[in-house]
Amino acid sequence: MDAASAAVARKPVSIDGLLVLARPDMAGVDALIRDRMQSPVAVIPALAEHLIGGSAKRLRPLLTIAAARLAGARDDACLKLAAAVEFIHTATLLHDDVVDSSELRRGKVAAHLIWGAPASVLVGDFLFARSFELMVEAGSMAALEVLARASRVISEGEVLQLTRAHDLNLPQETYLEIIRAKTAELFAAAAEAGAISAGASEAQGKALRRFGQELGLAFQLVDDALDYSGESAELGKNPGDDFREGKATLPLLLAIARTGAAEKAFWDRTVGRREQTEADFTRAQALIAETGALEATLGLATDYATSAKACLAEFGGSNSWRPAMEDLADFAVARRS
């Protein structure tokens, strides 16, 4: 890890300032979320509450609110868009957990293990539908276009990842293409939608979209590193899920490239064919640590976070939302869950 990465990793980073600034708006967003996840079909609110009612920080809707306020929003037009963003995100989580056969989500048993895969998929569809209702109510065709496009891009990213799973030779460029679509696109759209709701200039809208995209890339890179270094209580999911599912994430790809022929048989068996024993994840962790793959992944995440902060130069230094959003970029790298 270079000096810049180490500095971010060492310093205590908090988004408390941003949470305080956004508290009134986020209370409104939470009220919208809880109102719109209701249904006379009892399983829908029960399943949705299981996931939405967790300890999530709601970073994506928070980003919509922060972008809108940074761009000068004075009304509540951004609240419905922020709630729509959270519904899109929650729907994708429900679908992903079914596809990946995940056991934990946000520290709880995954919904599909309680209500079954069909119910989880269908409630995900319900939340997608609710998100589009909220977008229409927000009354902005431009914001609707941005978030609708994001929904399509996220799906493309997930399918691309599925088709390239277990690929030991996945190029880093393809890996970045996958996470840019499946994760960073919603961060980018969340920020851009906030800018649109505030009537921001074209330059400001582009800057905030770029901020969201770079933030999302940093966030996913750290998530992928944490899968090999975190603890279940911190992550809210089981460490090693990516390894057990054979996902070609950057820490794994770097370790495979750096161990070369010496460990080819191990990687072919455990990732390529997914023939694993209980001891294999521990060995994979050791190889990833020994090769510096974790440090390299976190270093790249730091680069993206730095790039995200640079995007905010479009806005004046007197706006209290700007340093709070800079803290959010640092938090994406320094967090442990």
Structure description:
- The protein is mainly α and 337 residues long.
- It has a single domain, classed as Farnesyl Diphosphate Synthase, CATH 1.10.600.10.
- Helices cover 74% and strands 1% of the residues.
- The chain has a two-stranded antiparallel sheet with strand order 1-2.
- The longest helix has 28 residues.
- It is globular.
- The N terminus is likely disordered.
Give the key terms:
337 residues; mainly alpha; two-stranded antiparallel sheet; 74% helix; globular; disordered N terminus
**Order of the strands making up the biggest sheet:** 1-2
Q: In angstroms, what separates the terminal alpha carbons?
A: 19 Å
Q: How many helix segments? A: 17
Please give the largest β-sheet: 2 strands, antiparallel
Class by alpha and beta content: mainly alpha
Instruction: Please count the beta strands (DSSP E, at least 2 residues each).
Output: 2
For CATH, the homologous superfamily is named as Farnesyl Diphosphate Synthase
CATH topology: Farnesyl Diphosphate Synthase
Total tally of structural domains: 1
Shape: globular
Low-confidence stretches: 1-10
